[in-house]
Write a structure and sequence with these properties.
Layout: H1 2-38, E1 45-47, H2 53-63, E2 69-73, E3 87-88, H3 101-122, E4 125-129, H4 144-150, E5 154-158, H5 173-182, H6 190-203, E6 206-209, E7 222-223, E8 250-255, H7 259-262, H8 264-276, E9 281-286, H9 291-299, E10 303-305, H10 314-321, E11 326-328, H11 333-342, E12 351-352, H12 358-367, H13 369-386, H14 389-403, H15 416-424
Parallel strand pairs: 1-2, 1-4, 2-3, 4-5, 5-6, 6-7, 8-9, 8-10, 10-11, 11-12
Helix pairs in contact: 1-3, 1-4, 2-14, 8-12, 10-13
Length: 437
Amino acid sequence: MFRRLLVSTCSAIVASIALVVLAIFAMLQAPWAARRRRQGMRPRLVYGPTPIISIKYMREAMSSRGYEACTLVYALASINDRSDFDRYLGDLPGGAADARLPLRALHFLFGRYLAFIWALHRFDVFHFFFDGGFLVGTPLRFLEIQLLHLAGKRVIAMPYGGDVYVPTLTRSLEWRQAYLADYPRIVFDERETLRRIYYFCRRADFVVACLVHLETLPRWDLLTTHYYPIDTDTWTPTSKSGLKESLGTVKVFHSANHRALKGTQSLIDACATLKEEGVDVELVLAEGLPNHEVRRRLADADIVAEQFLHGYALAAMEGMSLAKPVVSNLSDSDHYDVFRRYTGLDECPIVSASADDLTDTLRALAADSALRADLGEAGRRYVLRHHSYEAVARMWEVVYRTVWLGEPMPAQAWHPDLADRLLRAGVGVEEASGTFA
């Protein structure tokens, strides 16, 4: 009890001092930010602190277009390598688990403030998820955007899933049931989650919404199928992908994290039924594996079965990039029709299947290797057009013209054809220079 009170008191004292220091430092940064905008210079980009692999891909996509970009994370998941991210809070003195107690205490009290100061000095546009920015875990977490604005910086908020999930605002009872099955205590976080959602929606300069993570957002400035890309050069088809002849056992790959949300048991049951019928299928479950091992198993699969309640995500994009046929659930017309109308989802070759018709869908795909190859080739074309580094980077370049330079957003939904029209009209970025065209 006394120890917790001491930590809380020290944290409050440090936060009070930090607020003054950060405000002064922010005001000193403001003239430099204003000068960069006046000169039309490209914004410097930073992503974090949640260690989701999508920010690695976003950073790589924008770096390939000549932007200075960096990821800074506060934790590392077991499925990731340290090399996935540029900067890690634990690299600061006292961040290691075996560091001496005084150093660990200093790291706890000052580490996130130092990371914020470093990022404030180095970058112009901050990309955060709704679970918090670089001051997350400090008493100043709900003053961060105000401090960034004081420094002339810009903030973009993006959802990834649990950061915006609010059970009582979820229309689909099936989706709600699955979330509560996987994360039964999420209901107790609802008040805090709503506070974060409204803070970022009210304060951020730009909010990007995507396929299944927009239901609880009161505001978004751009509707996208997905705002993050896939490295189509790394995730490239193998020679097996184009074969139309049967190669024996049909391997069905499934990433089994979030089992209830993805409908994993339905897939297990469907594959068991098919095997009882004599269909030669093998279910390959990947759960808690590092990304390089997931990639190996995906490349060896014949079908990628992703999720059967709602939407598609990174595993489906990876599968399509490898020219694999992908099965997921895009059947909710109330949700997906708007994406089909505005974002190009109508071009998506994913085979839509709910838990109820999954067995029939897999039976048909297992029996027709030519169909699997055709769907795989269509998926590869779709990913190149909608989810490649080049395609997604063009979207973000238009966003930065709005966020950084104050130009009006040409549309409220993103489609590759919009990028083509804008580029033909001369809206783009000069490749060789550090300024907008």
